[in-house]
Amino acid sequence: SKATVSVLNWTVHTRPHQIKMAAKRDTFGDQVPGCEPSWYQGQPSPYYHDGHRAFRAKCRAFVEKEIEPFQDKWIAEGYPKELHVKARQQGVMPRPKEIGGNDEWDPFYELIMADEFSRAGGAGVMGQSAINSMALPPILHHGSDYLKSLVVDDVAEGRKHISLAISEPNAGSDVGAVATKAIKKDGFYEVSGFKKWITGGLMADYFTTLVRTGKAGMFGLSLLLIPANTPGITIRKMETQFDNAHNTTFITFDKVKVPEKMLIGKENQAFRYIMYNFNHERWLIAVGGARSARVCYTEAFKYAMQRKTFGKKLIDHQIIRFKLAEMLRMIESVQDSCEAVAYAFKAGMKDHELGMQCALLKVNASKCFEYCAREASQIFGGSAIVKEGKGKIVERLYRVVRATAIPGGSEEVLLDFSMRFAAQKAKAHL
């Protein structure tokens, strides 16, 4: 049998099971077209289930109650570490199943969490949650039982934090050039050198630290877990282009003694560990970049619906509609790619198998964000160059763009990497 459904003055002939499927479509959040991901606005998705929808609601409520009212204050003084414990208690940061959490946890929960936190508008609150998820995996995958017992439970519960200490003044994307030395003597590694642009350094209790234990190049690198309060470590905050309720730091290691048992995995094997780890990091950066771009679109679209110039609303100008359409076209493409990579992770593909996809995804996300921030600024005009009023959020996000394009591998490095990866794989087929 068939039924007739009227949709926007169109007559559609459909079968009963199709009507049932349509009835399951839910809406959540802002229903202005494009201001939320499509599955928030009634479009069916094969990726999300009721558990994801409930988690999405928890994250949105947490951001609106616990973050947004305090953002401006925290930009000036930093957000409190205790916020992570509160998030854990409210079910916003569940333990992944790999460390004793719910078996239902999958990459789409992490995608939702990163997306909702990014929706707050570029202040970096809860930024340590992403850093923890980047700095902990080398210990989970390669660390000894001792190291796991030392940090995993406390980090998962939000009681302690861990940051990656990889980049140096002369070694950013070129990880193989890391120069911080770790000399083994009398049961310890003596670590000396500098780390720069270390996110969360002032919040971290531990550092997953890349050091040189062997020859020059990528095959002489090792990872050490170093407590932040170890004598000889100095940490200072670096002022950034973007507003930062989190922190970016410069760390000095001056003959820091680290017990040999703090070695993560094997000596001189860390380059492989780090390269695998970067893919997850790039995916998370892309998820945040996609939502930041969507916030730019949201702010610009709603402003265009209200603001009048030359006797008519901005939205009635064809060039403004073109700008907004280009923004949304790019955003939806990046969103789809973020979900495709999340599904690949869920299906069991390993991080190292997704190197090219994650590299290209991060570049697409940062270029999308850059375009949306620029065009939103153009739509707002003078209101987007002051840190107050209607254009305040767009002004803030405009200064965040480079913090999406550079960390985790700059656009140029990742584009080159993706083609080197492709060329290497092609040799088996040509």
What does this structure look like?
The protein has 430 residues and is of the alpha+beta class. 47% of the residues lie in helices and 16% in strands. It has 14 helices and 12 strands. It has helices at residues 16-23, 50-67, 71-77, 82-89, 107-118, 127-135, 137-142, 145-156, 270-306, 318-346, 355-380, 392-398, 401-405, 411-426, and strands at 3-7, 10-14, 162-165, 181-185, 188-199, 206-212, 221-227, 233-238, 248-259, 263-264, 308-309, 312-313. Strands 3-6-7-10 form a 4-stranded mixed β-sheet. Strands 4-5-9-8 form a 4-stranded antiparallel β-sheet, with no helix packed on it. β4 and β5 form a beta hairpin. α9 (270-306) packs antiparallel against α10 (318-346) and α11 runs antiparallel to α14 (411-426). The radius of gyration is 23 Å and the shape is globular.
